[in-house]
């Protein structure tokens, strides 16, 4: 798959050419390692909302989602009621899908339990970082043994809308693997960030 040549003349992952808003997201967020629980929860929720839709749709609505869900503070979202569900179903700024909205509330409650049991969401999720030698060529897969295992464990713990494909997209975005194309100029920056990154325990 040929790279996208950005306006600065340097190659990026091919999907960056899909929409103007993809480039800053790609250059500044995608693949850089994250250990902040709130950001991890946000990303998993947004990947759940993306199911069946385009990432561009979600990215363009991301600020609306943040407003609607208290910036994905799962301690607050865990207390959402049916009144909140009804409010969100009327919010044209987000994806008005009852199942996905209710999944966010459910998953916020599950996240609280996970923090009690594991210390942090980050400590749990980073256990699923794949071994570097086992990673396939960049952007050639939509699931992995680790994403399948992560999805299975999350479902076992009561999380919803967290299938293996959603889990893999989450892992790509949050830096559990460096899936930038080999010639992408951002790949080295991500790799350096991953080398400096202190894995949570």
UniProtKB/TrEMBL annotation:
Entry-linked Gene3D superfamilies: Hypothetical protein, domain 2
- Which positions does UniProt annotate for Zn(2+) binding? 13, 26, 180, 184
Q: Which InterPro entries match?
A: Adenine_glyco, DNA-3mA_glycosylase, DNA_glycosylase
User: What are the GO MF terms of this UniProt record?
Assistant: DNA-3-methyladenine glycosylase activity; metal ion binding
Which organism's genome codes for this protein? Halomonas campaniensis
Q: Does the keyword Calcium apply?
A: no
Keyword annotations of the record: Metal-binding, Zinc
GO BP term, pick one: base-excision repair
- Organism's domain of life? Bacteria
Q: What is this protein called?
A: 3-methyladenine DNA glycosylase
PANTHER family reported for this sequence: DNA-3-METHYLADENINE GLYCOSYLASE 1, DNA-3-METHYLADENINE GLYCOSYLASE I
């Amino acid at each position: 798959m040929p790279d996208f040549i950005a306006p600065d003349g340097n190659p990026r992952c091919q999907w960056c050419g899909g929409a103007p808003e993809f480039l800053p997201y790609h250059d500044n967020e995608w693949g850089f390692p994250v250990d902040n629980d709130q950001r991890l929860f946000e990303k998993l929720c947004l990947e759940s909302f993306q199911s069946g839709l385009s990432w561009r749709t979600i990215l363009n609505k991301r600020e609306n989602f943040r407003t609607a869900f208290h910036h994905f503070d799962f301690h607050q979202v865990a207390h959402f009621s049916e009144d909140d569900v009804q409010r969100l179903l009327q919010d044209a700024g987000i994806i008005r899908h009852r199942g996905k909205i209710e999944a966010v509330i459910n998953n916020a409650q599950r996240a609280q339990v996970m923090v009690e049991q594991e210390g942090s969401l980050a400590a749990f999720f980073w256990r699923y970082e794949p071994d570097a030698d086992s990673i396939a060529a960049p952007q050639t897969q939509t699931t992995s043994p680790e994403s399948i295992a992560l999805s299975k464990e999350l479902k076992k713990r009561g999380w919803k809308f967290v299938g293996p494909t959603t889990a893999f997209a989450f892992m790509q975005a949050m830096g559990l693997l460096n899936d930038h194309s080999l010639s992408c100029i951002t790949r080295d920056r991500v790799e350096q960030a991953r080398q400096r990154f202190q894995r949570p325990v």
